[in-house]
Fold these 3 entries.
Entry 1:
Amino acid sequence: MKNRRLDFSVFRNNKNITYLDYAATTFMPDQVINSWVDYQQNIGVSYNRGNGILSDAAEAEYNKAKKTILNFFSAEESYDFVFGKNATECLNIVAYSLRDCFNQGDLILMGPYEHHSNILPWEKVAKETGACLVQLPLSEDGNVNYSFLNSLDKNRIKVISISMLSNVNSYAIDTMWLKAVKNDCDAIIVLDVSQRVGHCELDCERIGADAYIMSAHKMYGPKNIGAAIVKKQLIEKINPILVGGGMVWNSLGASPTWQLGAKKFEAGTFDVGLVKAWSEACNYLSNIGMDIVKESDRRIWEYVKERMDSHFFSIVPGGCENSSMVSFVVNSMHPHDVAEMASLHSIEIRTGHMCAQSTLDNLGFKSLCRLSWGIGSDILDVEAFIGLVEEECLHGK
């Protein structure tokens, strides 16, 4: 991939920064920022707020942007958006929208590699409804023990909420297993795809999950917007969590009537500019080509595996073959000391529990280091960090 750093004002304004924390957040290229600014300068209002010239323009931009994003994820046929500020909020919305589906003793099935955002909402719903949260165990080789499902009463499984890619070691869930489970027990499948959307093609129609959870800022879009891309037939069955202006059709009487479809989840004033900017991020990635993005990730991953195959590092096992991240420990240093050392040399990495304490506990760690890469990264970035660690381990005091 050609040098894409020049597409990002953050890199142009911070020329000495080596950024290796793409799994936490990606930057916006200029065309995405300009798209948001253009909307605020030329339209500036929300949609569904009247029939004036600006309101009509806002609605046109909103519908156009939604179509672009849905097309990017091959979701235009069967799905619609439930928007939120981020993936965390969208997982909360989905979990609480499904609250009435649970009876005491029902099961919510999760993977062993989940982010806090995909544990805590379901844990809260389980406590309030009497449902049981069940986590698939890990095998000794770090793979998910899918056969554990056979020990459960499949008729009691109402929801399976699972990360498509782990934010710790990039473990990839078996989507064919998910399809088989769906056919076997008719559970609602919720996939957290936050760590996939900026790196690999996602075909929602082919995978067939009921809901996909994501944040725009994981794929070069703006912060403060995420989405649950939900099957239209499921949207019709679930209830809104936030109520107020915009989502109500008739507020008179004892039983208000909500808007139809996804509109019943659109309470309050909404920044259409964020959706427009997100659609521009989709255009940015499409113009590069997701195959090219994936190949760049793979090339860096192969280099990382080779360079970290030494007594200085211990890599967390279980990642997929085309990973965009690596978690590890430096054998002679605490992760927080590694982060401080890197920061002193203008290298940004991630350390700690990655908002996935359950995952680290499953793997036998309290804290880790993580490198993650994307557009704008190259082998020299990871070499700068690895070389720094080796130098410190060999000659540091």
Entry 2:
Amino acid sequence: MKRIFRAFSTALAALSLFAMGFCAYAAQTTPDEISICPDGVYSFGGKSAYSLSFPESAEADCTSDSLSTKAEMKLFGILPVKSVDVHLSDRQIVTLGGKPFGIRLYTDGLVVSKTSAVPVENGTADPSAKAGIRCGDIILEADGEPLKTNEQLTQICENSKGSPILLRCRRNGDYFSTTIFPEKDVQIGHYRLGLWVRDSCAGIGTITFTDENTKSFAGLGHGIYDGDSGSLMPLSDGDIVPADIISADKSTGGSPGSLCGCFTSGEPLGRLKANSECGLYGTFSDFSDGDKIEIAFRQEVTKGKAKILSTVEGSEPEYYDVEIEDISYDNSSPSKNMVIRITDKRLIQKTGGIVRGMSGSPIIQGGRLVGALTHVFIDDPVHGYAVFAENMADYNNKIVQKQAAITQ
């Protein structure tokens, strides 16, 4: 009898450990935030083992368009996994993108891309180092004058004749002031600060979706960063314009390719309002065509087959087959929620997989917009990252609300 009891106890302990381990795994591989429709119907992307338990005393926070509360996620309706935030939300319907667009972005201040020493009579001098200026810093003013172009700073430097210049800067959201002393470059005969700065950038990306109700768009899926400093380009102004893809420089292992395109004539399609970690956002004016589609909630996305809508030649998008291989709910990498693999031989033949310029291409699964392509794996260009479409929609809605509040 004791043997039977011991065996039973051992089996029960092993089962408990297994259940605890499985629940811990489930807690890490499921979202902390879940959206459900007003009718109370929700889905975990085919994972029927999970369910939500709402306490009777749950206090709900009612807003104009949503209901938020806490719920307990359970495994098999019994084992508690974790507490999650539940948002009651209507499914958002948008117009599917997939078309290329030209980007013209002007920075808020001047982004420091590089610093360097200045050749002087007795060797070299480093004004930027003495002033404590680093790569990625944003120079907002010089001697009280707001800076918008590189030429402004160059002229202020030359006019100084070596006199100190007071700079107002921003670094990681914090503001500071510093004094910099221009040095005369003996090789060119002009005063220099030892700073390489950037005031604008241009490129090509892909529109993910547009929202006719709010006259807005979301695209790219990731932010525009300075290529030298790696910092997010601070947006002052900018617009998006029509673009055509002329050809594709194919990706190979270790060398990502890119779409080769040109801006076409015509009025801008919209104005830029935000350059964020998970995409470009702004107003949009051209709603002439495009299919309407529902945005999937993030917990509905599943591993498996999907479609990507992208333009790799001309101006009209095509559907290509992809596979969603991994899903992550880690908010520390907002533009890397999924790993996808290009499986369509047509696309691989044309581009080698994923190339620059395809960023923002919408991903469709189960008839809903689930995400957008964001990055290519440099050593394996048939693989890449993607962002949840719900994340992009949430950010776009915040930008729309912010702009509406400003104009009121």
Entry 3:
Amino acid sequence: MEISNALRGKVLVEALPYIQKYSGKIVVIKYGGNAMINEELKDAVMGDIALLSLIGIKVVLVHGGGPEITDMLKKVGKKSEFVDGLRVTDKETADIVQMVLAGKVNKSLVALLGRLGCKAVGLCGADGALITAKAMDKKLGFVGEITDVNPEPINDLLACGYIPVISTTGCDSDGNVYNINADTAAARIAGVLKAESMISMTDIAGILRDMNDPSTLIPKIYVSDIPQLVNEGIISGGMIPKIDCCREAIRRGVKRVFIIDGRVSHSLLIETLTDEGLGTMFVQG
């Protein structure tokens, strides 16, 4: 589609108040799903993050990497097992999770941002005792429950103009490595940073009143309305823990939390810098 100069100008002018609103503020982006494994979408997401950073927004990128972990486990002959959506993680699997997330996935994202002119540094839970964790449940093995988040490494990097890129592994005082759910980690990190907003990139358009009808998207939800939406079955299944993370982030002081469709090219920019938006926003109230 041909875009006219007038339309380009309209888009830029529309973005101005949002740039002013977010400039100098912290925005935590949780990244994963199809937007991570599709190379074209990955390039678009990194381009969006680069732009947000270059206009003065302090971006913190928190990423998962479930498909990559599954692929590596297959290569070494280990079968993936899940309980309530969480990967059962023995000691060997925990080592592979750390290798894939903190090594392969994390460094590839750092390199991509670097090629786009951004200064980015990769972190995992062990770096500066960033994420301290303990075993969540014996039947899950080394799946971690976060006990503490140390914001100092993140704040130090932000102060020096870097984008922290955080892989969601944690550790304890004995050096054990834990696999941490990326949504949970992003919510805790956003909370401790008192972020202006948290944006969770998912594989759905947002919260729909009718899951088969995109026109029923709910653009704004007050956290006090969440129990009713669960009772009505509008929020159900695997979305419940994701929404719990949104609520937790708000409870810990994040002003706004967005769930957006990471499969849509440039969804980050549309949600952050335009009147239109495209996902569901959660706010206190």
